[in-house]
Write a structure and sequence with these properties.
The chain is mainly α. It has six helices and five strands, in the order E-H-H-E-E-H-E-E-H-H-H. The chain is elongated, with a radius of gyration of 32 Å.
Amino acid sequence: MGEVVNRQDAYHWSVSRIAEAFGMDRRTVTKRLQESGVAPAAMKRGNPVYALSDIGPALFGEPGQVAGGVNLDDFPDARKAWYQSENERLKFEKEIRQLIPADEFARELSMLAKTTAAALDSIPDMLERDAGLAPEAIERVQMTIDALREQMYQAVVADVEDHGDE
């Protein structure tokens, strides 16, 4: 027969159960609970059990806190320093060409699309001249190319509509 459990006990977990539930090592759980100063909610069979409401912030940190329970709001220059470091990172990435401006990307993409369109337009002429294909086959190739160009256009238009505000 099953064991009757007090409702409050359902929210008091041992270190082993916490570690198993969150896929962590028991030593890591113990260390984080000690660093955060979480006191056991009760004792069960001689072992401490902790309230789930206390272990969440201790294991995963609350917003604005880093490991050890340090609140970044206590350091007024931390936010400014972070933004400055991000700006420097972006400048560096631009400098080494790992990050390119959106207008430059659009120009390059446009050049690629124009080159592709020009190559597609020349295929029927090359097939007629070099391969000696019949006019009916050339017409079929031209229809296929036109359909491909239309698909490419529709994909670009749909992407602009989906991501136009970004």
